[in-house]
Amino acid sequence: MTEATTIFHPAGERGHQDHGWLNTYHSFSFASWHNPRKMHFGALRVLNDDTIAGGMGFGRHPHDNMEIITIVMEGELEHKDSMGNSGVIRPNEVQVMSAGTGITHSEFNHNPDTHCTLFQLWVFPNRRNVTPRYDQHTFSPSERMDQFQMLVSPMDTEDPGMKIYQEAWIYRANLAAGNTLTHKLHSEDHGAYILNVSGAFSVQERELAHRDAIGIAHADTIIMNASQDSDILVIEVPLEV
């Protein structure tokens, strides 16, 4: 097995744009922010940390051949798309879209007076030009206490979680201070990108503060130890795309 490697992405080195209505941080090159050292991590192309002002949002815009995952943390996000889906995504809910041959959609803060915060991930698909699809699901916070809650899994598996067209798994965990979690990768050809949503914990003895992230490649297992109560996002993806 190839020797494990890590790459550390401090929160303060993310791309940042404040448009007034949108305050956004980019883990990887996006829009006008370009960093040739941060184009993607394997099949993970985008990880944006967005705060949308009350009543504001993204007008109708297109996507194709991308798996798009939206995790709402605070507030409510209103969604409409060309597939006929419309509704509101709330905390503890996750939305998945397979853009496939092409979709258009809009995303707005449903509330006029309070902000909405969310993470949006784009994952390169392993099948192109599929029929677009949409899914939305509520996940119980009690099912991620000191354990991994699988939010997303590959289309061709019987694993729980919402399905995407890629050999990728996305997990969330709320790890109490003093506790440990171990994640075993599905393949030696995969890597894991781990984001500290909140709290403080170590990954392979590297300390991660608020919004820090680490990418780990070619590891068999990954160990996380919490020094504070922590909210953790783990994204396992193929390293080659």
Describe this structure in words.
β18 and β19 form a beta hairpin. The protein has one domain (14-238): Sandwich (Jelly Rolls). The two termini are 20 Å apart. It is mostly beta strands and 241 residues long. The protein has no helices and 22 strands. The strands form four sheets. It has a seven-stranded mixed β-sheet with strand order 1-20-17-22-15-13-14, with no helix packed on it. It has a seven-stranded antiparallel β-sheet with strand order 2-3-4-11-6-9-12, with no helix packed on it. A four-stranded antiparallel β-sheet has the order 5-10-7-8, with no helix packed on it.
Helix content: under 10%
CATH topology label: Jelly Rolls
Radius of gyration, in Å, reads: 17 Å
Per DSSP, the total helix count is 0
Describe what is shown at a glance.
With 241 residues, the protein is an all-beta fold. It is built from no helices and 22 strands.
Blueprint of the fold:
Elements: E1 5-9, E2 15-18, E3 22-26, E4 44-52, E5 57-63, E6 67-74, E7 77-81, E8 86-89, E9 93-98, E10 103-109, E11 116-123, E12 133-138, E13 149-154, E14 162-164, E15 169-175, E16 180-184, E17 190-198, E18 201-203, E19 206-208, E20 213-217, E21 221-226, E22 230-238
Parallel strand pairs: 13-14
Antiparallel strand pairs: 1-20, 2-3, 3-4, 4-11, 5-10, 6-9, 6-11, 7-8, 7-10, 9-12, 13-15, 15-22, 16-21, 17-20, 17-22, 18-19, 18-21
